[in-house]
Input
Amino acid sequence: MQTSKMRRKVAPAAAADGDSADKLDQLLLSAAVCNGEDLGPFVRKAFTSGKPETLLQHLRHFSRSKESEIEEVCKAHYQDFIIAVDDLRSLLSDVDTLKSSLSTSNSQLQSVAGPLLSSLDSFVDARNVSRNVALALDSVRTCVQLTELCSRANIHLSANNFYMALKCVDSIERDYLAKTPSSTIRSMLEKHIPAIRSHIERRVNKEFGDWLVEIRIVSRNLGQLAIGQASAARQREEELRMKQRQAEEQSRLSLRDCVYALEEEDDDGLGGIGDEGKDGYSNGGNGMLGLDLTPLYRAYHIHQTLGLEDRFKQYYFENRKLQLTSDFQVSSMTPFLESHQTFFAQIAGFFIVEDRILRTGGRLISKMEVENLWDTAVSKMCSVLEDQFSRMQTANHLLLIKDYVSLLGVTARGYGYPIDALLDVLSKHRDKYHELLLSDCRKQIAEALAADKFEQMLMKKEYEYSMNVLSFQIQTSDITPAFPYVAPFSSTVPDCCRIVRSFIEDSVSFMSYGGQLDFYDVVKKYLDRLLTEVLDGGLSKLINTSIHGVSQAMQVAANMAVLERACDFFFRHAAQLSGVPLRMVERSRRQFPLNKARDAAEEILSGMLKQKVDGFMTLVENVNWMADEPVQSGNEYANEVIIYLETLVSTAMQILPVQVLKRVLQEVLSHISEMIVGALLGESVKRFNVNAIMGIDVDVRLLESFAENQAPLLSETDANQLKTALAEARQLCNLLLSNHPENFLNPVIRERSYNALDYRKVVIISEKLRDQSDRLFGTFGSRAYKQNPKKKSLDALIKRLKDVN
Output
C-alpha cells in the first residue's frame, strides 16, 4: 500500500516533467486501453519513432494511475483484483516479449531495406535520364517533322502549288510553331510564314491579272462561236420550215406521193465539263473553246484559304465591271457595220463566262450582281443601237445589224438573260427599216422598168424557165413547155417579181426573231405599200410616158395579167415565211393591188386600138347614104375593121389572157358602135334611106358574127358579152328598120329592146331618114304617091319625142 501511495505521488511529478506531446500520447494511449482498442498502432509508432521506452513509460504511468482504482475495486472484488493483477503481470511479460520481437524485426528490416534503397536511388536516376532522352527524341522528331513540312512547302512553292503550300504553312503555324524547341527556328518561322503568304498572294494576283487580260480575247471568240451556233441552228430551222412549206404546197396541190421524215438535231450547246486543272480545280468550261477558269478559281480558293474571300470577290467584281465598261466603247474610226459583230460578240462572251462562273464558281459572284451587269449592258447596247440606227440610211445595213442582234438575243436567252429591251429597240425601228427598204425597191423597180424593151422573153433552158416562171408560180400550165420557150411577158416581170420577193424576205427577216410571233399583218401592210405605191405607181408612170405603139401596149397589158398571178404568189409567200396557214390567206383574198396600172394598160391599149379603128372608120364617108339597093356584103369600112380585128385577135391571143382580150375587144366594139351611131348623128350625113340603114345592119351583123366567132377562144357567155358592146348600133338599126317604130314609146318594149338608145339621138337620126319617094325628082313620076305607113309612124315617133324633149 505504501508502494501504491508512493507511485501515486510519483505520477504527478512525472506528468509535470513531460511536454505537451507526451501528455497527448499518454492520453490517447489511456483512452485506447480504457476502450479496449487495439494497441498495435501505438506499438508501431513507438518503434517507428525509435522510442519504445516512452511507450513503456506511458503504459507504466497508466498502470500507476489505475492502481488506486484497482485498489478500490480490489477492495470490493479482491478475488477479481488478484486475477486482474495476474493478467496485468502476464500482459507486462507479453509486452516485453513483443518489444524484443519488434526490435529483432526492426534490425532484420534495416539489414534488408538498405540494398533496396540504394537500388531505388539508382532507379530514380535512370528514370530521370530516360525522361531526358525521351524529351530529346521528341524534340528531334518535332524538328524532323517541321523540317519535312518546310521542305514540302518549298517544293509546293516551286511547283506553284500554292494551296498545298499554304496548307503546309498553316500546319506549321498551328501544330509546330508553339512547341518548336529551338527559339531560333521559332523566330525564323514567325518571320517567314507571313512573307510566304504575301508571296503566294502576289503570285496568285499576278496570275489572276494575266487571266483577266486573256479572258477578253477568249470571251470574244466564245461569243462569236455561240452566236455562230445560234445562226447555224436558225439555218437548220429555216431549212426544216422550207421542207414543211414544200410539203404543205404539195399537199395543197394534191400531190400525195411526197415523203416526210423527222430529223434529229444534236444540241450544240457550249456547256461541257473541262479537264481538272492543277490543285484539283475544275476549269468550269470547255477546253476546246479556250475557256480556262483554273487561274480564277485557284486565286479565289487561295484567297479563301488566306481569309481574304470578301476582298477578292470585290476585287474580281470591280475588275470585270471595268472590263465590261471598256467593251462598251464603240470606235469612231471604224464603221459600226464592220465592228458590230465584234462589239456584240464581246458582250455575249462576257456574259457566257459570267454565267459559267455563277454556276461553278462557288459564290464568287452572286446572281444579283450578274443581273445588274446585264442590265447595264442591255442599257448601253440599246443606247448604241438607237444612235447607230438613227444614222443608217441603208436598209441592208440595218437588217444585218438587226439579224446579229437577234442572234445575240437568242444566245443570251439560252443562258437565261432577259432580252425584251433589245427587242423593243428593234421593233421601234421597224418603220424606218421598211421605209428604207421601200426606197431601195423604188430605185430597183424604176431601173427594171426603164430597162424593159417591151419584148416577149425568150428562155432557152429549163433552168431559165424555173428561175423566171416557176419560182414565182406565174405559169399557166403545170406542163413544162418545149424549149426555146417564148414567154407571154417581158423581162421586167421576173425582174420586178425578184425585187418584190426580196422585199418580202427582207421584211420577214427583220420581223422574225424580234419578239413578235404574229407579224404577217405587218409584212402584209408593207407589201401592200410596195405593190400599190411603188410598183403600181412605177408601172402607171411607165404606161403613161413610155408606151408608143400597140405592140408595146399589148405587151404591158400582158405583163399586168402575169403580175396579177404573181401578186397571189407574193401574199402566199409572205404568209409561208411568216408561218401563217395558206388557207387563211386564200380565205382573205383582196383586190388586185396593181389595178391602177392594169386599168391604165388596158385603157391605153384600148385607146391605141380605137385610134387604129378610127382610121378605118373614116371610110364611113364612102357609104352611099341614099343607095338604091342595100349593100349585101357590108360596107368597106366594116370589112377593113373586121380584117384588122381578126389580125389583132390572132396576135393578141398569143400573149394576152382571155379576159384581158375580152375587155379590150369589148371596148373596141363599143367604140365602133359609137362611131357608127356618131356617123349617122354627125353633120356630114344630111340624110339617108332605108337601103343605107340595111347596109349598116349588114355591117353590124358582120361585127356580131366576129364576136360570136370568138366563142371557141373565150366562151359563149363572153362572146355574148362582146355582142352587147354593139348594142347601141344594133338597137338603132332595129328601130329604123322596124315596121312599128312607135313601139319605142312603150316603156316595156323600150326597156327590153331599145335600152341602149338615147331618145335625143333617136330624134336627130330619125329626122334624117328619108323614104324612096323623097329622092331628088322622085315626085315628078309619082304624083299620086301616098306616104309610107312606116314613115308616118316614124314621124309620129319623132313628134312625140320632141314633145317629151
Residues 1-17, 254-282, 284-288, 775-786 have pLDDT under 50 and may be disordered. Residues 623-773+786-803 form one domain. The beta strands are 458-459, 485-486, 688-689, 769-770.
